[in-house]
Amino acid sequence: MSAIYLDHNATTPLLPEVWDAMRPLMTETFGNPSSAHATGRKARQALEDAREKIAGLLGAHPDEVTFTSGATEANNLAIFGLMGKQRQPNPLTPFASLSAGPVSGASRGPATKEGGTEPNTQATTPQAPALSPSPLRGGVWKGLWPQPTPPSPLPEGKGEKELSTDTAPSTEKMRASSPFPSGRGDGGVGCLSSRLEHPCVVEPLRHLESLGVGVEWMPANARGVIESGAIAARAGSLVCVMLANHETGAVQPVREIALALPKGARLHCDAVQAVGKMPVNFRELGATTLTASAHKFGGPKGVGVLLAKRGTSLTPLTYGGHQQQGRRPGTEPVALAVGFAVALELATRNMDTNRTKLESHRARLWTALERTCPPVVLNGPEIGAPDVVPTTLNVSFPGCRSDLLLMSLDLAGVACATGSACSSGSLLPSPVLRAMGVPDEVLKSALRFSFSPAQTSEEIDDAAARIAKCVSATRA
C-alpha cells in the first residue's frame, strides 16, 4: 500500500530543479558572500541575483528583501522590530541581568518616531533603561557570573498554565509597569490581530501582551475571514493579518484593510500559505512587512524572507554583523536563498495550471467524502469560492475524535493534520476553528487535508476511500 501525502501545508518535497540550482553553491561556489576575494564575490553575486529575482516576483525592491531562517524568525523580526523594542526574556525563564559600561561611540541615542534610534555623538555612560533595543545597551557585558533573577509576574509556585483569571496579573497592572507605551495609534492599543493567525504570530503578540502592550483580538466570521471594516474602525499602531489561512485556506482582505488604516498605522502580513500559490504583490497589498517561507512551495527548509517597505525602521533581534542592513546579521545562506528564488520562479510560472489542478483535487475529495461518510462538515470557504487557496480542505467528521482518526489514517497510509505543523502536537482544539465559532462536536473532529498539483485524481480517489473506511471504523 503506497503512502498518500495530504499535508502539503506543513511542508512540500524539494523540487529537482531547485536541488540542481543549490548543489553547486554548496560544493563549488561555496564562498562567504561577505568575503572580498573572488570566491566570496561569486557567492555574493549569486545571493544578490536571488534577492533581485525574489523581489521582482513579489513586487518588491531588492533592498526590501531580508533572508531569514524561516517564517517563524521572519514574523518575530517583523513584530518585535516594528514595535521598536528588543525581545524580552520570558518572565518564566531565569535571565542574567546585563550591565552597561561607557564605550566611546557605541552608546545609543534617543528613540526616533519610527521606533529606531539616533546615533549619540558623545561618549556617555548610559543609564540602565527598563528595556533596551540591544541586550548590551551599547556597552559591554561586565560579567558572566549569575545575577539576581528579575521577579516573576506570576504568583509564587504558579506556572503559566496553572494561573486562573483570579490570580493572573491584570492587564492594567502589567501595563503600568511595562517599558512599552501604554497606547499606540488611533485605537489606543499597541497591536491588533485575530486568533486566525499562525502560532508564530500569535505567540509574539501574546508575549508583548504579557509585557503590558495592549493587544486587541478581532473576531472572524464563520468562513474564517476578518471583516475589514471592523479593523479600520479600531486600528492601532501595528495590525497583523495573514494573507491565506494555514488551516482553512481562507484569503483575508489584506488590501482592503491596508487602504482603510489610519495614517501612521503599520500592517504586517504573514503570507506563508499564499506565496507560490496565488499572486502576491507586496507593493499593491500595501503592507509594511510581509513574510514567506520556501519549503511551502517546493523550496528548501531553513530559509524565509521578510519584505520591509523602504523607509521602515526595524529593530533587529540579533546583533553582531553588518549583513542585510544590520536587520539580520550573520552569514547569508546563499544556496538556500537561490533555492528559494528558483522554487518561487517555478511556482509563479505554473500558478494558473497548478490552481486548476488544486481546485479539482479539493472539490473531488469533498464530493467523495460527502457521499461515502456523512455527516461531514466543511470548515472555511465553500468549494469553488474565489477567496480560498485551494491547496487546503478542512473537514470535520462528527462522531469521531480528530486525534484518533489521525492515527487511524496514518496507519492506513494517509498523511494529514489536525492543524498547523507548529501546533499539531497539541491535543487542544484548533484556535482557528474556535475563532470561527465552530461548535464543539465539529471542532473536535476536524482534520486538514492539503494537496499538491503533482498529485493525480486517482490518488485523491484512493485517499477518499481510505478516509471513509477509517471514519466508519472510528465511529463504530
From TrEMBL:
Compositional bias ranges of the Polar residues kind: 118-127
Recorded catalytic reaction(s): these are: (sulfur carrier)-H + L-cysteine = (sulfur carrier)-SH + L-alanine
> What keywords are annotated for this sequence in UniProt?
Iron, Iron-sulfur, Metal-binding, Pyridoxal phosphate, Transferase
Gene Ontology MF annotations: cysteine desulfurase activity; iron-sulfur cluster binding; metal ion binding
Which parts of this chain are annotated as the region Disordered? 90-187
**Aminotransferase class V domain: which residues?**
4-85, 193-461
Is Translocase a UniProt keyword of this protein?
no
Q: Does the keyword Transport apply?
A: no
Cofactor(s) of this protein: pyridoxal 5'-phosphate
Protein family (similarity comment) = Belongs to the class-V pyridoxal-phosphate-dependent aminotransferase family. NifS/IscS subfamily.
Protein name, per record: Aminotransferase class V domain-containing protein
The organism's lineage is: Bacteria, Pseudomonadati, Planctomycetota, Planctomycetia, Gemmatales
